[in-house]
Amino acid sequence: MKCLVRIINLESLNIKRFNAATLLTVGAFLFLLFLGTACEPEVDRAAIAKDLMNKALEERIANYKSIRENRCRDGLLREANRLVDSILFVEAKLANDTLDRPPIPLKPIAPEKKVLEDTTPVKPFLPDTIN
Question: Residue 58 is part of which domain span?
Answer without folding.
Answer: 44-97
